[in-house]
Amino acid sequence: MDAEIRKQVLRKLTYGLYVLTAVHQGELAAGTVNWLSQASFSPPLVMVGLKVDSRLHALVERSRAFAVGILGADQKEVAQAFFRPTEVSGGRLNGYPFRPGPATGSPILTELPAWLEARVTDAVKRGDHTVFVAEVVEAGLADPAARPLEMWDTGWFYGG
Ligand SMILES: Cc1cc2nc3c(=O)[nH]c(=O)nc-3n(C[C@H](O)[C@H](O)[C@H](O)COP(=O)(O)O)c2cc1C
What we know:
It contains 4 helices and 11 strands; from the N terminus they run H-E-E-E-E-H-E-H-E-E-E-E-E-E-H. With 160 residues, it is α+β, with helices and mostly antiparallel strands. It has one domain: Pnp Oxidase, Chain A (Roll), CATH 2.30.110.10. The site of flavin mononucleotide (FMN) has 18 residues, from strand 2, strand 4 and helix 2. Residues 10-158 form the Flavin reductase like domain.
């Protein structure tokens, strides 16, 4: 296999951009991710690939739950804020307001147009990311008309 062609082909997979959050015993973690997809209608499952050496991975592994905030097309700067290490100050997460999710307590970023909470059912540990499969247990929609932020439009890549 040609490694450069493989990289270019993998970079043509299409993604959204999301802020994934988790809490365990009062400790919060948040990060922007793109390796996320729905995985089953019934039960409603999602799957996400999380970097094994990240705080996000450590907290999801311990709490067995997370929240996903769906970024709007005009929220590229919010995505950027969550590439940085998690910082809680003045009741804000990396500068953005949040509240605890009703089902899992995972932080819900209140300025994002849509969110869901999920409880982990399975973890596939292989390579440098773990694929967590999780059942959607709660969801909220602040702006039904919002267009989601898409990876291709940002010029960013993660993978390949
Ligand atoms: C464009 C882009 C996409 C990313 N997608 C993912 C992803 O799908 N999964 C992941 O674990 N990290 C992803 N990251 C890295 C996380 O944003 C970063 O590791 C996160 O802020 C968590 O770091 P920490 O928990 O170690 O502080 C991505 C980074 C960039 C720049």
